[in-house]
Amino acid sequence: MDCLYISRRLKSNNQALIKNSSRIRLCKTFGLDNKKGNRNEDDKSYIYEADDVRLKIYDNGTYLYEINKYGEDMVTVSDKEAIEIAEKFLKNNNLLPEDFEYCGISRDIVQGGKDNKEVEVAKIIYFSRFINGEQVDGNSQVYVMLINDGEINQVYSSFIKNQKKKKVNDNFFIDINEGVENLVNPNNFLDIDESADEISVENIEIEYWEDSSPYSEDNYIQPIYRITGNEYSEGKNIGEFEILTQALKPQEKGKEK
Is 107 helix (H, G, I), strand (E, B) or coil? Predict the structure, then answer.
């Protein structure tokens, strides 16, 4: 089985220049190009502000743009219109990588008004990376929040940039039987009911995982095992479980040419 995983390598003498040019471009995109950023060493970020607009850019490229304007007015655009507005904004400003696609929508609902009815006050449009048609799992994402008549209220972006690709073969992978034997491991993502005393593995899949956050230093998009099945308590089926565990051998995960 051949699988791609992707690493990021930036030359140290160019890193500051790349970050600075990225900040300048983002500030210009969001209308803050004439503002001086305040450095926050605690979380390694720069903050740019003007009136009720705020842009926070982290050293690893993650950023959050937001406007302090969030009320109880109903969103008037449809889901289709919201997706089109978000995608057009991101693409027109070169904020959406070519391998990212729309992957979902969520809503902020509040109760209010004379009848205390539920009102949809925001739509959040999500975009994720896809490799060979498969969505990359993890906490990397780009999203746009829309309010009122389609006004952009927030833009968030966090993903690994400047990738280099490298082929890995079967010898790089943890044997699947070894993976199953070491399921209950604190280093794995475990979604198992606390009362379960037995699990039955029904399905094992290989997926991509990308770990990017404001503080992430992980430079890899890597394959993982997604293991699912049934969970039992005192012989009774109480639901389904999910476990995510590393698929590459540790010494190969960080190896670069």
Answer: strand
Residue with tokens 């051949």: 2
For the chain, how many structural domains are there in total?
1
| Alpha-carbon gap, residue 118 to 149, rounded angstroms | 18
CA distance 212 to 62: 8
- Terminus-to-terminus CA distance in the chain, angstroms? 21
Q: Does 209 map to a domain?
A: yes
Per DSSP, helices labelled H in the chain are 12-29, 79-92, 176-181, 250-253
Using an 8 Å Cβ cutoff, are 127 and 101 in contact?
Answer: yes
- Mean pLDDT of the 235-256 span: 76
Question: Containing domain of residue 189, as a range?
Answer: 165-253
Considering only CA atoms, which of 253, 245, 137, 169 is closest in space to residue 201?
245
Tell me what pLDDT residue 243 has.
85
- Over residues 126-135, the pLDDT tens digits come to 999 998 888 8
